[in-house]
Structures are given as structure tokens and as C-alpha cells.
Amino acid sequence: MKKPLHSILLLALLLISLPTQVMANKEAVQVAVDAAYPPYMFGTSPVKGLYPEIIRMAFSLSGIPVKITEYPWKRALSLGREGKVAVGGIYQNLRRMALFDYSDPIYLETLRVWVKAGHEFPFSGVVDLSGKRVGINRGWSYGEVFDSARRAGLFEAEEATDNLANLKKLILGRLDCIIADELSLSQIIYQRGLGGDVEMLDPPAAVNSVHLVFAKRAKQTLVLDRFNQGLVKMKENGTYSRIIDEFIHGVEVD
After folding, report:
1. CATH architecture, domain defined by 110-207
2. Rounded to the nearest 5°, which phi and psi values hold at 249?
3. List of residues 6+ apart from 200 with CB closer than 8 A
4. Tell me: the pLDDT tens digits for 26-83?
């Protein structure tokens, strides 16, 4: 029995309207992450860390293959803006939100201000960084409040390649303070035996959510929806908690 013409036309219109992102799901989604941000992202072949593992599992539970590659962070962001890759482990700020579509949060990072031991100063918020030399990582955002203060020239931002480079500059007295994730820098300090050389100021500077993003120009919102569904499944079946226990509570990193 032949299908009515209107049914055939409707089916054709539905197929035409399906985004290319859905049709291309047999190809692996390309994700760029930071090459040197343990315990969150680090190592090569394969990339290790909390975020790559969460991203792999969320896509796996969504039935979408994924390939994760490490880059210097500035390069990862550049590739992401061009729509060539998704970017994993990224904060939100107003400029980025105009360029990227964001997943649901995959984790929360706590940012702290660190100083050389014996050089503490009162800290209650970004205004207390006024006039100071502040070490930050090249290409990084620290959330909208700090990014706006930096653009306004409230403090003198000095960029380095990673947290370890900033830590060394701080100990040498070349910086007044650095801003870094509490867990990541604490691990570096412990592994290098530098606990007596630096102090962490209270309260936390910020708590920022971390995401997977695609450039808006890539039109991958349906892929993000499926990724989000994978995150939900991970939390329901206990996989999310297991991965956090593995990488946050005592994991050794390269």
C-alpha cells in the first residue's frame, strides 16, 4: 500500500530539518582540554584527570563517541572559538557566553588567593587586590568579577604558563599573590614540599562552575543536551561520585 503524498512530504521535511550535528554522531566529538592542570586535566595518550574522565563517561552513556586531546589552554580556547573542537573544563564569563553554548556544570572549583609566607594581607574580595601584582595563568578566566577587575586595571596581572610557574614566581618575591584553584595548587605545594613557603588567604576568592562548551557557530546544542543526559545518568548510577573519589581524594598525578 502506497503512503499518502502528504506523509512522504512530511517525512522529507523532518529529515531536512534535522541538524547536521545529529547526523554526524557516528563521528567522534573532538574535545580540547588543558594539558597541565592536575588533578583536573593532565597527561597524554590518553589525557587523564577528573574532567576528561567525566566527559568520556557522559558521552559514553549518551551513545556518542569522543576523542579528548590536550593543548596549552590558550590554544584549546582558540580552537574552540573557531568551532573546530569542544572545550572541556571551562568557566563562564560574559564574553565567553556570547561565543559558546554551555553544558550543565560538571564540577565546582574553589579559587583562593595565595601569598608568600609572612606577606599576608587582609582579604575579603577582589577590591583588596588593588595595586597588587597578581599571578594568573595565560588564557584563563577567573570568573566575571575578577575578569572585570583585571580589565579595569584594579590590579597588575602577570601571566605565566601554569600554576607551578606562578608559584615559583611568588616564592621568589616577584608577585604579591596568585589566584589558583585550592585543590590544584594544594597538590603542587604538597608534592614539592613547599608548605612552609606559602599561605592561603581566607575567605575563598570565588566558587566557579566548570563546563563543556561548543562554539555557537558549530550548532551543537543537541549534542550538549545528550551530554547533559549522560551527566544525569552518571549521578544516578553512582559513577560521578566514584570518579570524584578517584581523582580528588588522594590520586597521584604526573
Report:
1. 3-Layer(aba) Sandwich (3.40)
2. -105, 75
3. 112, 113, 114, 182, 186
4. 689 999 999 889 999 998 878 999 999 999 999 999 999 999 999 999 999 999 999 9
Whether the domain at 5-107+209-248 and the domain at 110-207 fall into the same CATH topology: yes
209: Cα separation from own chain's centroid: 8
Reference 150, options 123, 130, 178; nearest CA is 130
CA–CA dist 226, 210 (Å, integer): 17
Cα–Cα distance measured from residue 14 to residue 35, given in angstroms and rounded to the nearest whole number: 41
Its sign, for the CA torsion 96, 97, 103, 104, is positive
- Cβ-contact 219, 19 below 8 angstroms: yes
**What 8-state DSSP symbol labels residue 202?**
S
Entry pTM: 0.83
Instruction: Quote the CATH superfamily of domain 5-107+209-248.
Output: Periplasmic binding protein-like II (3.40.190.10)
Extents of the domains making up the chain: 5-107+209-248, 110-207
- The answer to whether the bond into 105 is cis (omega within 30° of 0) is no
**Beta-carbon contacts of residue 203 (< 8 Å; ≥ 6 apart):** 123, 124
